[in-house]
Amino acid sequence: MALMTLLFFSITTPVSGTITHNEANGKVTIQTDQLNVVVTSNNNVPAYSFGNKADTNASQNRVQFDRIFEFQDTNNNSHYDTADTIVTTSVTALASLQLQMNAVTELNGLNAGINFNMSLTAKALVSLNFDRITFDNHVTTMNQSQLKFDVIINNYNFISQTSMLAVAFKMSSKVSNQTTMDHNKQQSSLQFGQHSYFASNNTAMAGDAKINASLSQQVSTNGQHMIYLSYPHFSGKLVHDPSMGVTQNQVSSSYSVTTNQKSSSTSAMPLEGFGVLGTLLAIPIFYRRKIQA
Which CATH number does the domain 4-258 belong to among 1.10.287, 2.70.98, 2.40.30, 3.30.70? Predict the structure, then answer.
């Protein structure tokens, strides 16, 4: 089984609004007034099951990180689809990497809420085209209906100077297989399952430069529904901030992180704080300051 490092601290908190998290026996549960998410390490391939407790089928929608690869945009539509050619030597399955999942931490000030990240790096004797992929997850008191997960890719070294980069996710729902894609100037959004969505801003940062970011979907020959985030050729550190969540007319919920390792137990304590949703466009920072009740 792939090696995984798990760092958990004894923190448990409600946040005004309310967001709570409870870490015990390798499982972290975070509850908000609206969102229900369960995050699993899944043998080094992080996966999110999410929904809303107000729904009968809460947590039945699933998004799982799959792989990263380069492709030639054959039809010049700025996103990956089956008409494009994958650079086969660039394909990296996330299951082949080493996962480090870090403790849930509490944020206050402008971004009051909770944060945790997952980093994927090469195992010993494995060579990659990049230094690290980090998924930096946060839920804030100002928008408890969504989880934002910044995609941060450090120093990707393109094999082809004419290719684009795609991060692929498997998507499924036990509620409904129907999907609807919406686009506007700011973002693209994929509606699926029951009251659920996967959204992507149409721009990302690569170093100091703003670049385009595209969201697309495909159904494979075996019926697997796929989501792709696509980026043009870039240099430096890529930072992009997609999100997933539920429509805000729903209520109640729980957000969980599960791993294959044991972790410390904690109990719930109240947390105060409020703020506006912000996008982290820098190296992930761990906030370990307690928010006082």
Answer: 2.70.98
Task: Please count the CA atoms within 13 angstroms of the CA of 83 that sit on its side-chain side.
Answer: 8
- Collapsing DSSP to helix, strand or coil, 76 comes out as coil
Counting Cβ atoms within 10 Å, is residue 260 exposed (0-12), middle (13-18) or buried (19+)? middle
C-alpha neighbours within 13 Å on the C-beta side of residue 283: 5
Q: How far apart are CA 11 and CA 15, in angstroms?
A: 12
CA-based Rg of the chain, rounded to a whole angstrom? 18
pLDDT digits 0-9 by tens, 52-111 = 866 655 567 889 999 999 999 999 999 999 999 999 999 999 888 888 878 888 888 777
CA distance 27 to 153: 26
Residues 6+ apart with CB under 8 A from 78: 164, 212, 214, 230, 232
- The 10s digit of each residue's pLDDT in 11-45 is 444 444 678 776 665 556 677 888 877 787 777 78
